[in-house]
Amino acid sequence: MAGDLLDNRGRGDVRWSWPPIHPEGRKFGAVAVLVSLVFLIGFDWEIIGWPLLLLSLGIFAFFRDPERVVPQDDRVILSPADGLVSLIAQVDPPEEMMVDDGTGHPGLTPGRVTRISIFMSVFDVHINRAPIAGTVRRVVYIPGEFFDAGLDKASEQNERQHLLIERTDGLKIGFTQIAGLIARRIVPFVKPGDTVGVGQRIGLIRFGSRVDVYLPAGTDPKVLLGQKVVAGETVLAEIGSQQLLEGVAQ
């Protein structure tokens, strides 16, 4: 199905398939399988071997990389991550996204904007995707702590990586990959100057984490607190649209 054009009127050919495993995770899963077989076959220690074999299956599942059907609409900002909308707040963008970085490409404009925080549990897909199409202007890695990614302070104190993408019309979207309690490595797939398509894979965070998205001024979320979102498919916001949305948990 990759590359096929699908629409809301039934065009396209769709069939279910097992999601592939991203190459970044194959080595971890292979090592876990090898160690489990050593205990099962080499030492006949089933009490250790079988749990390790189950763990290896969990590792492969963690690094699954399913295909996504990405909406092609310049008006929308898509979710860069799978997970739970855990925080929606009015904040100032990170300093690293606003300061002059010497490249000649301006960062985000100072001033309060809406930040949407998406928490990824170990059960979510951890491949992150571009929320808009454009040129990667900044990739800024910042070492830090490993607090619970669900906490508000994680945005400023945890290990994190800021990314800034600029469209051809000048619109800029900043988002941040944040490591959590278990996560210990943020893996980028892109660098400054790269051109990315909307929904393109741009990186991953290993083993539980969070992504913060900074919406442009004058734009409200199209998602609700507590909602589950899907990277590359869920519309987080429509540029320039402001509207109060309410939901009921049930």
UniProtKB/TrEMBL annotation:
Pathway: Phospholipid metabolism; phosphatidylethanolamine biosynthesis; phosphatidylethanolamine from CDP-diacylglycerol: step 2/2. GO terms for molecular function: phosphatidylserine decarboxylase activity. It catalyses: a 1,2-diacyl-sn-glycero-3-phospho-L-serine + H(+) = a 1,2-diacyl-sn-glycero-3-phosphoethanolamine + CO2. It comes from the Bacteria. Is synthesized initially as an inactive proenzyme. Formation of the active enzyme involves a self-maturation process in which the active site pyruvoyl group is generated from an internal serine residue via an autocatalytic post-translational modification. Two non-identical subunits are generated from the proenzyme in this reaction, and the pyruvate is formed at the N-terminus of the alpha chain, which is derived from the carboxyl end of the proenzyme. Binds 1 pyruvoyl group covalently per subunit. It is a peripheral membrane protein. GO terms for cellular component: plasma membrane. Pfam families: PS_Dcarbxylase. GO terms for biological process: phosphatidylethanolamine biosynthetic process. Its main location: membrane. This is Phosphatidylserine decarboxylase proenzyme. It comes from Qipengyuania citrea. The lineage of its organism: Bacteria, Pseudomonadati, Pseudomonadota, Alphaproteobacteria, Sphingomonadales.
